[in-house]
Amino acid sequence: MERIASTPTAKAPAERFTGDVYLSMIQTPSEPARLAAALVRFTPGARTNWHSHALGQTLHVTDGVGLVGTRDGRTLRITAGQTVTCPPGEEHWHGATDTTLMAHLALAVGDGTGDGTTWLEPVTDAQYTAALAAAD
Predict the structure, then answer these.
(1) β-strand partners of 30
(2) Which residue segments constitute the domains of the chain, with CATH numbers given?
(3) CA–CA separation, 23 vs 38, rounded Å?
(4) Helix, strand or coil, per DSSP, at residue 58
(5) Over the stretch 92-129, which tens digit does the pLDDT of each residue have?
């Protein structure tokens, strides 16, 4: 057993996120384990870019209310205590609603070359607004 020192919280890179997002890394992929885990905090309106994961992703909401959207237009409203899985290769995004903060644990299994994430273009304001209106 080993206690891992906490890493400093860092502002998420603007080329992958819209708005103010903060990352606290829990674990980065390291052979033989391939788990990437982070606590991600989104301010109202903040969100990821479109992206996919080679081996899928699990999101567990720890606080607030957020959204997860897919290319086919499906949007889930997610709240504290809920878990969402995104299958391998599915292009999606996630973030806070326009009025609330949202924090989640983001878990992904790396593909041997990192965390297996392919980052794409930003979610437009029009896509985000439509997702807010359509969320289940």
Answers:
(1) 33
(2) 10-134 (2.60.120.10)
(3) 7
(4) strand
(5) 999 999 999 999 999 999 877 778 899 999 999 999 99
